[in-house]
Specification:
Elements lengths: L2 H27 L2 E2 L4 E2 L4 E3 L4 E3 L4 E2 L4 E3 L6 E3 L4 E2 L4 E3 L1 E3 L10 E3 L2 E3 L4 E2 L4 E2 L4 E2 L4 E2 L4 E2 L7 E4 L4 E5 L3 H18 L1
Parallel strand pairs: 1-4, 2-5, 3-6, 4-7, 5-8, 6-9, 7-12, 8-13, 9-14, 12-15, 13-16, 14-17, 16-18
Antiparallel strand pairs: 10-11, 18-19
The structure holds coenzyme A (COA).
Protein name: Acyltransferase
EC number: 2.3.1.-
Keywords: Acyltransferase, Repeat, Transferase
Amino acid sequence: MTAAKLFSYARALLSEAFLRLYMPYLRCRLGHLGPGAGIYGRCKISFPQHVHIGANTSIGPGCFLQASSQGHIIIGERCAIAAFTRIITPTHDPAVLPVAAVGINRTVEIGDDVWIGTGAMILPGVRIGSRSIVAAGAVVTKDVPEDVMVAGVPARVVKTLLPAELRFENGRRAILQKRKAS
Ligand SMILES: CC(C)(COP(=O)(O)OP(=O)(O)OC[C@H]1O[C@@H](n2cnc3c(N)ncnc32)[C@H](O)[C@@H]1OP(=O)(O)O)[C@@H](O)C(=O)NCCC(=O)NCCS
C-alpha cells in the first residue's frame, strides 16, 4: 500500500470516527437533529438549543448558524446547505442609537429540499420556501417563495424551477442509474 493510500485510508477512518462521536454529541445539544442529518467540521453554532435541523439535511464545512436567545433556525428535511453559508438571526433597530440599545432576534425558516449554494448569507426573519435554490454568494434579505432560484446581492428571483414532481422523478432516475453503474 502506498503512503498516499494509507494516508487517505487513515483520514477516512478518522472522519468516520469523528462523525460517529460528533453527531450524537450534537444531537444532545441542538434543538433537533433529524435522522440522517449531518454537520461537517468547522461549523460555528450559537444557541444550539434553538437550531432545528430536519432529517437527511447536510450542513457543509465552515457554516455559521447564528441562532439567538429568541431567534431560532429551523431547517427542513433533505436540504443541502453548502460550505460557508451563514444564517443570521440577531439584528438591531436602525432608528436607535447606540446600536446595542435594542437587540432584535428573528427566526429564520428554511423549507424542505432547499439547496443553498456556498457562501450564501440568509438574514434575520427570512423564510425560504421548499425546493427553492439560493445561488452561491447570494445575500437573502426577503422571503423566498417555493420552487424558485434566487441569486445576487440582494437576492432576486432569477428562475422558476421545474414542477416538483418532475424534479423528484429526475432524481429517482439519477439514483437508479447510479445504482446500476456501481
Ligand atoms: C444557481 C446555480 C445552481 C446556477 O444554476 P443554473 O440553473 O445553471 O442557472 P443559470 O446559470 O442559468 O443562471 C441563471 C441566472 O442567474 C445568474 N446566476 C447564477 N448563479 C449566480 C450567482 N451565484 N450569483 C449571481 N448570479 C447568478 C446567472 O448569471 C443567470 O443570469 P442571466 O439570466 O442574467 O444570465 C449556480 O450558479 C450556483 O450558484 N451553484 C451553487 C454551487 C455550490 O455552491 N456548490 C456547493 C456544493 S453543493
